[in-house]
Write a structure and sequence with these properties.
The chain has 219 residues and is of the alpha+beta class. The chain has 2 domains: 87 residues, Orthogonal Bundle (Arc Repressor Mutant, subunit A); 112 residues, Arc Repressor Mutant, subunit A, CATH 1.10.10.10. Helices cover 47% and strands 16% of the residues. Strands 5-7-6 form a 3-stranded antiparallel β-sheet. A two-stranded antiparallel sheet has the order 1-2. The radius of gyration is 23 Å and the shape is elongated.
C-alpha cells in the first residue's frame, strides 16, 4: 500500500499527497477529468491524484495550453471554480449535428424493452431494470435519458441507488395523459407484482399489442 503524507496548501485545508505517487500527474489528471460530470476544483483533483495542489494547478494550466496549441477538438477550462473538458468552440456545430441526429434515430429493440420496464415498474433503479431484462442496461438508460423519455426521480431508501421514471415527453409521444393510462399488460402475463422474472421480450410484446412501440419507434 502506498504511503501518504499531509502537505499544506497554504490555507486552512490540507491535501493528502502520496509519498510515491501511483501514476504520472498529467495522465492521472486527464483520466479523472475524462469521467467527471461536473467541474472539479484543483483541491479535489490534488487529493484524488495525490500530488501537491500547486503542482496540480501548474499541470492543469499546462494541459490547457497544450490542447489549445495542438488544435484539439476539446478544451480544458477553469469555469465556475472548477476544471472540466469542453468542446472547442469551432466544433460545436459538429457536436450539435451528432446530438440532433441521435435524437431522430429510431429506438432499438433493447431501448424499447428497457423503456417498457421503466414505464411499468417506475420508480425503478437501473439495477432492478438490469435484473428484469437479464442484461446490463447502463448504456440504454443513458440513451433514454438523453432522448428525454426517462429521468431521475430521487434515490432508493435502502440502497440510495438512483431511481428513474418516464417523463411527460414520453407520455406525449405515446399519446396518453398519465401513466395510469398505460395499456394493461397482455392477459396471458402474470400480475405486475410477479413479473420481475418475465423475459423482457414479453414486456415488449405488451407494448406492441397496444400499438405504443410503433409510436415511440418513429419518434
Amino acid at each position: 500500500m502506498s504511503q501518504r503524507n499531509e502537505t499544506s496548501t497554504g490555507g486552512d485545508l490540507d491535501v493528502e499527497t502520496l509519498a510515491v505517487p501511483v501514476a504520472e500527474l498529467r495522465p492521472a489528471l486527464e483520466a479523472v477529468l475524462m469521467v467527471a460530470d461536473q467541474p472539479l476544483d484543483h483541491m479535489v483533483l490534488a487529493s484524488t491524484v495525490g500530488y501537491p495542489a500547486d503542482q496540480v494547478v501548474s499541470a492543469l494550466e499546462g494541459l490547457a495550453a497544450e490542447y489549445s496549441e495542438q488544435g484539439r477538438g476539446f478544451e480544458l477550462r477553469n469555469v465556475a471554480g472548477g476544471w472540466r473538458y469542453y468542446t472547442a468552440q469551432e466544433y460545436v456545430a459538429v457536436v450539435e449535428r451528432f446530438v440532433l441526429e441521435g435524437q431522430q434515430a429510431r429506438l432499438t429493440q433493447a431501448a424499447l424493452e428497457t423503456l417498457a420496464v421503466v414505464a411499468y415498474k417506475q420508480p425503478v433503479s437501473r439495477g432492478r431494470v438490469s435484473a428484469i431484462r437479464g442484461v446490463n442496461v447502463d448504456g440504454v438508460m443513458r440513451t433514454l435519458v438523453s432522448r428525454g423519455l426517462v429521468e431521475e426521480c430521487g434515490n432508493e431508501a435502502e440502497t440510495t441507488a438512483l431511481l428513474y421514471r418516464t417523463t411527460s415527453y414520453f407520455l406525449e409521444r405515446i399519446g396518453i395523459n398519465s401513466t395510469d393510462d398505460l395499456p394493461e399488460l397482455a392477459p396471458f402475463l402474470p400480475d405486475l407484482d410477479e413479473f420481475d422474472d418475465l423475459p423482457s421480450t414479453e414486456l415488449r410484446t405488451s407494448f406492441d399489442l397496444a400499438g405504443e412501440a410503433a409510436a415511440l419507434d418513429s419518434a
